[in-house]
Design a protein that fits this description.
Elements (H helix, E strand, L loop, with lengths): L8 H14 L13 E5 L1 H11 L4 H13 L11 H17 L18 H10 L2 H9 L5 E8 L5 E7 L7 E2 L2 E5 L4 H7 L9 E5 L2 E6 L10 H5 L4 E5 L4 H4 L13 H14 L2 H15 L4 H5 L7 E5 L5 H6 L7 H10 L11 H7 L3 H16 L2 H12 L1
Helix pairs in contact: 1-3, 1-16, 2-3, 10-15
């Protein structure tokens, strides 16, 4: 599951649709169809929530949907006027007067928004002892959470697995076996500049980590290293947003919201589409190798299914701007976010930070509908698993 801030509510809807297709009657003996669960950024939070309740997949997804549907901005980051104003004044003071006294830079805030409420919510919602039990009892084979290390420049995959899966190392990428917890989720979802980086202890060394979508050169790689042979990818980007083609050029200078939204979109694209294309090319090459040749090599074909939004999440977000706390609405207006029919803009930025139930409910409904519309593909993809 890829990143995308509030967009990740769409993934909960997709998961709900997949389970409805595979097990419409919610049979008591139905087992978790996702043996290996990998997530990045907000997708990491969804992955952990699913893994902690993998022994009861329907209950896990229902709980995840209920959590997203009841969500409010204050549950994720402080959004009151006093805190936002104080942070803004601190940044302004550092930028305007910091050159007079460089030591003042130590007093600057670590981010534009404080996501301490999210830390409390995750601590109250997720039971990681259940994750350990699910791994021990075989309800789950592995779970992986990715983050970017500011300290070393590496892309880290924190994983917890059943069985002896050895850590792997690639160029600018490293896997770390560990007991996954709230800190790993906060690190993976620490959008640069927006949320603060998180300190993770690696052996006897502390590494500061940020959003896992940064420098994610091979997002599908962790699942393959953990033994996956069939990979279902749930994205959060609408095709026409990632491949826009030619659009009418606006003569106006882009607003801060447009620039910030474009930056976040580039971070959260995270190379999944490119990785899927590479995977298909490798599958084509492997199909030409005799079966006995594959047995002697550490290569295997990987079947994939990708589900992504069929509608623009930017446009859906603009329709729900009025649900945000007033202070956040004011901040967005200053940055250039607007839902006016004459001059709409900044929808991308809003779509990542609009943690309000009206918006998340629409995303869940869209995700569920997108899954149901591809029921035949889902059944065919999971056929070997169910057999």
């Amino acid at each position: 599951m890829t990143g995308g801030g509030a967009r990740a509510a769409y993934q909960a809807g997709v998961l709900s649709g997949i389970l409805q297709v595979l097990d419409p009657d919610s049979a008591p003996g139905f087992r978790n169809p996702f043996d290996i669960i990998c997530g990045t950024s907000a997708g990491a939070i969804n992955a952990a929530a699913l893994a902690c309740r993998a022994h009861r997949p329907h209950q896990a997804v229902n709980h995840l949907c209920a959590l997203w549907q009841a969500l409010h901005t204050n549950d994720v980051y402080y959004s009151d006027a006093l805190r936002l104003m104080r942070t803004g004044l601190q940044w302004m003071a550092m930028l305007t007067l910091g050159w007079l006294r460089p030591q003042w830079s130590r007093l600057a805030p670590h981010s534009f928004l404080d996501n301490q409420p999210l830390a409390r919510l995750l601590g109250q919602t997720l039971n990681f002892s259940h994750l350990n039990t699910n791994l021990q009892r075989g309800h789950l084979q592995a779970v992986a959470i990715t983050a970017a290390a500011y300290t070393t420049g590496e892309h880290l995959t924190f994983y917890q697995a059943r069985g002896g899966i050895m850590p792997w190392t690639r160029t600018l990428r490293r896997a770390v076996a560990c007991q996954i917890g709230v800190d790993h989720l906060l690190a993976s979802s620490a959008i640069p500049f927006v949320f603060p980086a998180r300190a993770i202890l690696l052996g006897d060394r502390t590494v500061w980590c940020g959003d896992g979508s940064m420098r994610q050169l091979a997002p599908i790689s962790p699942a393959i290293h953990l033994g996956a042979q069939r990979i279902c990818v749930i994205g959060t980007n609408y095709r026409d947003e990632t491949q826009p083609g030619i659009r009418e050029l606006s003569p106006q200078y882009p607003s801060l919201a447009q620039i910030a939204g474009h930056t976040l979109s580039n971070i959260f694209l995270d190379g999944v589409s490119a990785d899927m294309e590479r995977l298909e090319r490798v599958n084509e090459l492997l199909a030409r190798i005799p079966p006995n040749g594959l047995k002697s090599e550490s290569l295997r074909p990987i079947h994939t299914l990708m589900i992504a939004p069929s509608q623009s999440l930017d446009e859906i977000a603009l329709a729900h701007l009025a649900e945000l706390p007033r202070a956040v609405q004011t901040l967005f207006r200053v940055l250039g976010v607007s839902s006016r029919k004459i001059e709409p803009g900044g929808g991308a930025l809003a779509s990542y930070l609009l943690f309000e139930s009206g918006y998340t409910k629409d995303l869940i409904a869209l995700g569920r509908a997108d899954s149901m519309n591809r029921a035949d593909e889902i059944i065919a993809f999971f056929k070997e698993w169910s057999a």
